[in-house]
Amino acid sequence: MTKILGICGSAAPKSSTKKLIETALNAAKSAGAEVEFIDAAKMNIHGCMGCLACKADQAKMCTQKDDMTPLYDKINAADAIIIGSPIYFGENTGQIKCFIDRLYAFLGPEGSRMKPGKKTVAIITQGYDDEKAYAQCANTLVGGFSYLGASVGEPLIVGGLHAADDLKPESLAAAKTLGKKLAE
Ligand SMILES: Cc1cc2nc3c(=O)[nH]c(=O)nc-3n(C[C@H](O)[C@H](O)[C@H](O)COP(=O)(O)O)c2cc1C
Fold this sequence. Notes:
Layout: E1 3-8, H1 16-30, E2 34-38, H2 69-77, E3 80-86, H3 94-102, E4 107-108, E5 111-112, E6 119-125, H4 135-147, E7 151-152, E8 156-158, H5 169-183
This protein binds flavin mononucleotide.
Cofactor: FMN; [4Fe-4S] cluster
Keywords: Flavoprotein, FMN
Protein name: NADPH-dependent FMN reductase-like domain-containing protein
């Protein structure tokens, strides 16, 4: 069965990013996938300390012990990753940046320790209407996974959002399509 993880970079109580990720996951589940939502922005995930302990031994991952620790196995086991973030001051959120930097631990002295064949896709939400304005942030969201060997799908970027209730049916439909495609 295809395993899909949805990783959310918004801690907002009523998050449009979360709603889009959950919509995609629910569609994937209906299509037969096993899914799990990870509320990464609300977890205790520190930034990378740059100690390079992960580069000393191909068998050893990150030595920092926090909420990222159990996620390494879940990430590795997943066939597909949906990673989403709102835009904050022109960037992805700080919380999701900490998560992304910690993926560096998958790069051991002998190369990527990440299971091959993984797919990844980004979801970006923003207030500004121009959905091309922060397209680079979608690349940054999936960049770590891509560097470690994952293939990257077309991102879903939704502008004009100031509250989760602003999500239009067509954006939710696009999230459903994204989730269904990953479950194939
Ligand atoms: C701290 C902060 C900074 C923001 N900066 C931007 C920005 O630079 N550009 C933009 O288009 N929207 C910006 N927004 C709006 C959010 O990106 C937008 O409302 C997004 O959909 C929120 O997602 P969420 O509901 O999942 O938290 C900002 C919102 C916050 C709270």
